[in-house]
TrEMBL record:
It comes from the Bacteria. It comes from Alteromonas confluentis. It holds the Pfam family Peptidase_M19. This is Peptidase M19. One of its GO terms (biological process) is proteolysis.
Amino acid sequence: MIKHAKHTLCALAVAAVCSPALADKSSDAIHESLVVMDTHLDTPALLVQPGFDIMESHTFDDDFSQVDVPRMNSGGLDGGFWAIYSSQGPVTEAGFRESRDTALLRAMAIHEMVAAHPETFALATEPEDAEDIAKQGKKIVYISMENAYPLGEDLSLLETFYKMGVRMVGPVHFKNNQFGDSSTDPNGQQYGGLSDLGKELIKKANQLGMILDASHAHDDVLKDMIALSKTPVILSHSGTKAVYDHPRNVDDPLLKKLVASGGVIHVNAYSSYLKELPNDPERGKAYGELFKQMGNMAEMTAEEIAALKAKRKQIDMEHPAVRATFEDYMEHFLHILKVAGPQHTGVGADWDGGGGVDNMMDVAALPKITGRLLAEGYSEKDLADIWGNNALRLLQQAKDYAESLKKPQ
C-alpha cells in the first residue's frame, strides 16, 4: 500500500479501537495508519553488494535478505534508521583507516539508493521529516552508525558523518574498542565502562545533536552514557535479561534507570539473544569456513556472491538453523513494555544483520507485532509511540540540546 494512503485510514482505526467487534479485523488498518519505523536496519550491507536491487522483490529463502521495497510495502514499514556498520578490527591506525573507508562506502551507498530512487526514498535528518516523508508515500531514510570504531581517535570525523546525515551513533560492537567496553568481548572489560575518548565521544555527539545508542555496549558503558549524556540514550536493538540472561540484554534495574532518564529500548529479534538455542558444532564449523571465503563482498562480482549464497544454502540444508519463535520475541517485547511502558519501547529487529524469528523472518511480517499488541490491550496511541514517536522524541531532544549550545548564554 502506498503510504500516504495510510493516513486516510485513521478514522477507521479509531473506530476499530472503540469497537471490540471490529478490532481484530482492523489491526492491519491501524498498522497502515501509523508511521512505522525500525531503528536498526542493516540493509546497507546489502546495498554495497553487486547484484542486489532493493526495488526488486526478494525472499529470505532465496538470498537471505529481509528488506526490500515490495516487502516494506507489504509489511507497512515506512523506513527508519539505516545503519552504517563496520566490524571491529584492530585498534590501530591501519585498522581505523580500513574501517573508515568501509563506513564511507556504506554511507555513500545509502545516499546512492536515495538519489537513484527519489520517488521511493527520501533522506531524513530532522525529527519532523518522518511524517512528512511518509505522507508523500516515500520511505524514510535516517542514518545511524553502528560501532564508532571507524572514527579512530579523530572525533572531528563524527562531524563529517553528521554532515552526511548520521543522526545516531553507538560507540562499540562485538569487541572492546578505543571508546569503551563491549558486552560480548571474549576477553572481558578493558576500561570498566567508557574510555576517556569514549566520554569525549558522548560530548561530541551531544554537541552535534545525535542520538546515542548503547546497544552492544557493556552495562557499565550504558550507565556511563546515561550519566554523561545531556539527552536520553537509546538501545536501538536489545532485549531483556529477565527473559534470557544474555550479555546483549539489559536487566530490569538498568532498564528502569534508562527509562527514568527518558531513554528508549527497541526490541531485537536476533534469535540467539532471545533464548538458549541448541549448539550445532558442525553448522558452526561450516559457517566458519564460509566466513573465511567472504572477505569484502563489495569487491566481489555478482557471480561470486551468488556462489557464496549457494554454499550457505547447502549448509542450511545439511545443518538446519534452529531459531527462536515469534512468541519468544513477544515474550521479550511484552516484558519490556510492562517495565518500561509504551512511551519508552520500540522495534529494532536487526533486519539484514542476523535478526528474524520463525514466523517473522522479514519486514513483510511486521503487522503481526501490531496485531499482537492490540490483542494485549495496547492502544493506537501506544502503537504510534512504539512504532516511531519515541525515537523521534529522542531525536528532537538531541536537536534541541545542540541548538541550545548555539544560543548566547
